[in-house]
Design brief:
Blueprint (H helix, E strand, L loop, with lengths): L4 H5 L6 E2 L3 E6 L2 E10 L3 E5 L9 E7 L5 E12 L8 E6 L5 H23 L1
Antiparallel strand pairs: 1-3, 2-3, 2-5, 3-4, 4-7, 5-6, 6-7
């Protein structure tokens, strides 16, 4: 099994579930992927053939209707088995996120925190 649970469990930031297409460029090739969750430090991307841990990957993803951003990342861990969750890769951001992107991520994270609190009262 290639999934490194210690890397996944060592997250220090809350992740928000997201679902949008992300263009990944690895060694000049495009890798189709879809986001699963995101935080200020990284994200999980569902993709059928994730690059090996340590690989550098450029992500291009939508932030608004007409705005896209590019972020350099490194693959921290991968999962190629459906037996342990979604097939894909966990990546860590290597370049600072734009303030616009950070704002959108924090809105998602805060929305999830509010939903969790609300569910706690149910």
């Amino acid at each position: 099994m290639e999934k490194d649970l210690s890397a996944e469990n060592s997250r220090s930031e809350e992740r928000a579930p997201v679902d949008f297409q992300v263009d990944c460029i690895h060694e000049g090739d495009y890798v189709l992927s879809f986001s699963k969750n995101i935080s200020l430090g990284g994200m999980f991307l569902c993709t059928p053939n994730p690059p090996e841990p340590g690989s550098k990957v450029k992500l291009i993803f939508p932030v608004g209707e007409y705005y896209h951003t590019e972020v350099m990342t490194v693959v921290v861990w991968i999962n190629r088995s459906l037996n342990v969750g979604d097939i894909g890769m966990g990546v860590q951001f290597l370049t600072p996120l734009s303030s616009h992107l950070k704002e959108n991520i924090m809105k998602q994270v805060k929305r999830i925190e509010i939903l969790k609190e609300f569910e706690g009262f149910a």
